[in-house]
Amino acid sequence: MEKNFTTITINKRDTVAWIALNRTEVHNAMNAEMIFELTEVFKSFTDDNEIRSVVLTGNGKSFCAGADLNYMKGIAEFGFEENVEDGKKLAALFKSIYDCPIPTIALVHGSAFGGANGLIAACDIAIGEENTTFAFSEVKLGIAPATIAPFVIKRIGEFGAKELMMTGKRFKGKEAQRWNLLNHVYKSGEDENPLNEILKQFESSAPEAVKETKKLINTVLGKDIEEGIEYTSELIAKLRASEEGQEGMASFLEKRKP
Hints:
single chain, 258 residues, alpha/beta, 2-enoyl-CoA Hydratase, Chain A, domain 1, 2 domains, six-stranded mixed β-sheet
């Protein structure tokens, strides 16, 4: 957490880690260095017991303009195997966000093009400013939104993905919410941004229970019903007997704060 990065900034405020993309001169477009730094940071939260939630945002005018075109052009000149390895690094970034054990929140403004939507879709909760412009713009460049697809389709579904990815059209915050790319939309300059309330809810919840609940959801989605019953039965037994579980139930019955 204390390491100096060149393409992102990290600030800790109480129990919240704020990660901001910081290549403002190119609207925070992702290059190889940013991909590496973001992956390293999100993997570091595995062993962090002080952070209760992570907010991913962008400095400057935009959240993220997708992949840096100069970076993409340079990679395209390499061989096929090198391109495959580069694609795997980008996919590993999205997976490091999706697998992060603590809650992750994307706070989006300005524009979110191409791979930026992979960052958003990999987060647990996404909040966007109403006038943010979104686009799965890859088809306009003669390519496909390949590495982001598993995360975007999981979030918005098959037929939403078909319309947005195949047309490459631009759309704003309220439409992004209708497609479930965003959980919440707010107006710039207003005090109605739901982020603070969400952070308060995480702060007032038992941290290990939140982590286990996130793991529960991800695990159940990957199992059939019979496997899910076995896993969830064992999990509730473990949590009921845990220190957090015992204190949480006791404080509720005794009408006091845990």
